[in-house]
Design a protein that fits this description.
Shape: elongated
Number of strands: 0
Order of helices and strands: HHH
Number of domains: 1
Distance between the termini: 69 Å
CATH class: Mainly Alpha
Helix content: over 70%
Length: 139
């Protein structure tokens, strides 16, 4: 010990778990495939299904002569808009990260991107909590 400080080499070793690939092409394919699949299956497919189903519902509601149809149309539009507002920022961040994945970047920029991904992913998860509130209070 020098000057009352503990020797840095006597600390408990820390381990990092990571995926290792046999070839660079497998690593490249996997690093691109996972976020691309997440974008397609986690955002674009649900958005397409929501738009299709809710369009059919709105068409049916507009044909009805019910006085509350406008309220139901507002709920449908609110659900779709909240989905887009919650999930779009995360998916844009994920797309940006995927496109720039293999480019050299500064540590500060990469740290900011990681923070942005965490914050926007939290907002995307918040969507699950907002749906019941929308149906309860907007409907």
């Amino acid at each position: 010990m020098l000057g009352g400080q503990k020797n840095q080499t006597s600390r408990t070793p820390q381990y990092v778990c990571e995926i290792r690939f046999e070839s660079n092409s497998t690593a490249l394919s996997t690093k691109v495939a996972i976020p691309s699949t997440q974008l397609a299956v986690g955002f674009f497919l649900p958005l397409l299904i929501m738009i299709s189903c809710y369009t059919a519902i709105i068409i049916t509601l507009l044909r009805a002569r019910n006085f509350q149809r406008h309220k139901a149309v507002r709920v449908v539009l609110a659900v779709v808009l909240v989905f887009i507002a919650c999930h779009l920022p995360y998916n844009i961040t994920l797309l940006y990260d995927t496109v720039n994945m293999f480019q050299q970047g500064e540590c500060e920029v990469l740290d900011n991107l990681q923070v942005a991904k965490t914050v926007t992913q939290t907002i995307a998860y918040l969507h699950c909590c907002l749906n019941p509130v929308l149906y309860a209070f907007a409907g």
